[in-house]
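User: Can you predict the 3D structure for this chain?
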Amino acid sequence: MKPSWSSVRADPKDAVSSLRSAALAPYVFNDSRHDTVFGVVLQRNLALEAEKRVTRLGGRWDALVEAVSIGLDEARPILGTGRLLVWERDTTIDDGAGQAMTHGYLDESDMPPWDTWIAYVDGAADSAGYLVSWVPDPFVTSVDEAVATNAYGALYWLRDSKLRLAQILATEGLLV
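Assistant: Here is the predicted structure, written as structure tokens:
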């Protein structure tokens, strides 16, 4: 099994920058948050393709193949070495509490590092949009502390949510 992008770059001694590579830094003037996250994921997958760690399938979305090209059987162990985190930008407060608890893994707004971003799901009329990221195992304990003390419920584990994405992944056996 090939290690995931984040697992080979995660350095517990450098929580601030080990998963914020300059090559993947998000473009801040996109039309939407979805486009911003898509751009980061696209660049990560192009880099993985250049490293010969994924292959393109062809078609419009052919660069976004990390999970598809490794297959579900290989994705399960990778997901078992960390957790999927949800962050709601519109309900967070920029107090720096999560940043302090995680020694910089989360930023002052509780945003996870962009090298770990997976998807942005637009909100419905009655809910906020949210960013899904993967937290590598070395950071799970400190992020769990930040989740437990998050005053506004803007930061939580996907597995503990009632989100539709959590239901789908649980059905596939991909939520640990």
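Helices lie at 5-9, 33-50, 66-70, 72-79, 97-101, 137-149, 164-171. The longest helix spans residues 33-50.
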